[in-house]
Amino acid sequence: MKRSKLILGLGLVLVLVLGILMGGCGGKTDSGNVGKTQGTSDTGKKLRLGWTVARQDDHPYTVAAETFAKVVKEKTNGKVQVDLYPGGQLGGDRDMFESIQMGNLDVGVISAPVIASFTQVLVGTDMPYIFNNDYDLLYKAESGPAGQKLLQKLEQATGVKALSFIYQPFRHFFTNRPIKSLDDMKGLKLRCMETPVHIDIFKALGANPTPLPYNDVYTAMQTGTIDGFESDVIGANASKFYEVSKYITISGHFNNAVVMVMSEKTWAQLSPEEQQAVQDAANEAAKASLDITKKANDKYMQVMKDKGVTINEVDLKPFIEAEKPVIDKYEAQIPEVKEFVEAVRNMK
Q1: What confidence tier does 334 reach under pLDDT thresholds 50, 70, 90?
Q2: Beta strands 208-211 and 189-192: pairing type?
Q3: Are 216 and 241 in contact (CB under 8 A)?
Q4: 107, 235, 325, 342: most buried by Cβ count inside 10 Å?
Q5: For the chain, which domains are there?
């Protein structure tokens, strides 16, 4: 009896040991890829591309990302594929940029004002009124030598591969009272991004800049915490801001530059032919974002009118004059700002 119990016990131990060994051989399929950027599949390499805005068919970020993925796949004959993660699934702009720097994310569409906390080389793209609300001038500046030089400096400063600028509509003022002249800006509690440049820009207009997270804007307008904010019309429509703002003042003060960046680690793992395909795809994504921006801007401006929002046109000359000291300040502080602004001036 004792002998049979001993045999039974040894048998159970043997089964348990075999189970552990077999689990160790076959249980690491998923965990083996945790923290890695570029993955592989039966058809080749897979890249992850993230951006913060929710997926919307005619949003420039969506169009840029989908164009990039399509062209990469076509130009590499399916050897490189891009998986898309919209709506902040991979984190906010700062989180994604840091992940790209560390090699934990392949590609991201990142807002330039966020990058300003890493390097100031792109601050010149945020200078007020240098583009005169002109999309062709914006594209000429940022896709041409002046913009490409900024992307090279971004690479040198942060260690990412800067592929291209991505384009979106110029930004205007959304308020609960009309703005008919520069005087109406005085004391206006205006939500802005939490960056020194933007705070300086709106102070120069006489407003009272109030840094707030973007997701708090709707409630802040409802409660009167702020009198207004600035946004492009595509984002404003997506957030239903026509429900809490009665007026749009056409300002076009800046464009809020966006860049498509890639992990240097991922870039180095691509063949020269694949690298060229990725760069070509980024260039096509930039142009596609510009094209949809022009169409969508007109479309959603009309949507705002249809929703009962009043569109104001103002004399922008006093606004432009008020911002000259801000430009002078940043030109004196940051060489890249002076170089870029001068390049844009020479293109007009």
Answers
A1: very high
A2: parallel
A3: no
A4: 107
A5: 43-169+256-296 (3.40.190.170), 172-254+302-347 (3.40.190.170)
In angstroms, the CA 122 to CA 148 distance is 11
Q: How confident is the model at residue 262 (pLDDT cuts 50, 70, 90)?
A: very high
CA dihedral (93, 201, 339, 166) positive or negative? positive
Phi/psi-derived region of residue 256, left when phi > 0, alpha when psi is between -120 and 50, beta in every other case = left
DSSP 8-state code for residue 132: T
What band does 25 get if pLDDT is binned at 50, 70 and 90? very low
Pair 60, 168: CB distance under 8 Å: yes
The position carrying tokens 């600035």 is 230
The pTM of this model reads 0.84
In this predicted structure, the answer to whether residue 132 has a pLDDT above a threshold of 50 is yes
Q: Which two tokens stand for residue 49?
A: 């591309």
Task: Please give the Cα distance from 96 to 31 (Å, whole number).
Answer: 21
Query: Tokens 């991505």 sit at which residue?
Result: 166
